[in-house]
Each structure stands twice: as C-alpha cells, then as structure tokens.
Amino acid sequence: MAEEKVYPMTLEGKKQLEDELEELKTVKRGEIIERIKIARGFGDLSENSEYESAKDEQAFVEGRITTLENMLRFAQVVDSDEVDKDEVSIGKTVVFKELPDEEEEEYKIVGSAESDPFSGKISNDSPIAQALIGKRKGDKVTIEIPNGNMEVEIVSVKES
Fold first, then answer.
1. Is the full-model pTM beyond 0.70?
2. Residue 108 and residue 92 in contact, taking contact as beta carbons nearer than 8 Å
3. Which backbone phi and psi does 65 adopt, to 5 degrees?
4. Are 47 and 117 in contact (CB under 8 A)?
5. Cα(40)–Cα(24) distance, rounded to whole angstroms?
6. CA proximity to 107, closest of 84, 124, 82
7. What backbone phi and psi angles, to 5 degrees, belong to 71?
8. Contact assessment for residue 76 and residue 8, using Cβ atoms and an 8 Å cutoff
9. What are phi and psi of 143, to 5 degrees?
10. CA 107/CA 90 separation, integer angstroms
11. For 85-121, how does the pLDDT look when each residue is reduced to its tens digit (9 = 90+)?
C-alpha cells in the first residue's frame, strides 16, 4: 500500500483550511445547485452557457472539497514551541539579509497548503525554506536558486 502524503501545517493554517471547507460545503454547494436549477429552466441544455458554467464551477468546488478533506485528514500540525527559539522551523518567521548587499527579507515558513508568497508565507518545500530550516540566528547559508546561489545570513528567528 502506498504511503499517504503528510501535510505539515501550522494550527492557524489548519483552521483556515477547515473554514474554507465549511464555506464550500455549506454555502457554495447550495449556491451552485440553485444556479443549476435556474439554468435548467432556460431550456435546451446543449446550448445553455449558464448551465455549463454552473456545472464547471460545481466540478471545481467538488474537486477542492476533496483536496481539502484529504489535506486535513493527513494534516500534521507543527508546534514551533517544540523547536529551540533560535532555530528556523515551520511556523516561525525568519529574517535574513542577502550578502554582500545586506538587503533584508522576511518570510514565515508554513506548510505547502498555506503558502502565499505574496503575503510573505513560503512553503517548507521551497528552496529557500529547505536551506534555512534547522539553521539558527547568525548562521550563513547558501541557497540554491534557479540562476545560481544566494548567500544569506540569518538575522532573526521569531515565533509567528
């Protein structure tokens, strides 16, 4: 039997997924079913764009529900309190400066289900997080990026 994928995440991230799942099941599903009923009333389904659009959205929502249920079933909540306060881990925010120009960047490391790079949340599977996890404040780290390597120094590690 194949081993199930584990989805590491913060408690906050798990709660967000649970809320999204609840919204999809209790609100979105009903809205889509209503749209399908209304669209059926328009007659011939073969040329009914409202019906096709509602069915496409229904397929997307049902797929997302299945994905969320699976992620939550195999969720592994990571407690960053169990890790030394100066050590980079999932659930912590790390500030590092690029060397030699010393431009600072700050990211919260989260499970892949929660990642949102535009909000400063990067996946534990990302090259940056992979290079930083387990390192400590003051460590110099080489991060492999698509166009070469980036040298950084960890400035601080904070509980998020």
1. yes
2. yes
3. -60, -45
4. no
5. 22
6. 124
7. -65, -40
8. yes
9. -110, 125
10. 11
11. 888 998 899 999 988 888 899 999 998 888 888 999 9
Nearest to 159 by CA among 94, 76, 75, 78: 94
Give the sign of the dihedral formed by CA 44, CA 45, CA 48, CA 51: positive
Give residue for tokens 């289900």. 113
Cis peptide bond N-terminal to 117, omega within 30: no
Beta pairing class for 148-159 and 140-145: antiparallel
Residue 66 CB partners (closer than 8 Å, separation 6+): none
- Alpha-carbon distance of 64 to 24, in angstroms, equals 8
32-35's contacts with Cβ under 8 Å and 24+ in sequence apart are 32/57, 32/58, 32/61, 33/58
Cross-strand bridge partners of residue 75: 7
Record the tokens describing residue 7, joined without a space: 């989805």
Residue 42 bridge partners (DSSP)? none
Q: Which amino acid is at 160?
A: S
Q: What is the pLDDT of residues 66-88, one digit of tens each?
A: 999 999 999 988 876 777 888 89
Tell me how far apart the alpha carbons of residues 115 and 104 are, in angstroms, rounded to a whole number.
20
pLDDT of the residue at 138:
92
Predicted confidence at residue 43, as pLDDT, reads 76
Q: What is the pLDDT of residues 48-63, one digit of tens each?
A: 888 899 999 999 999 9
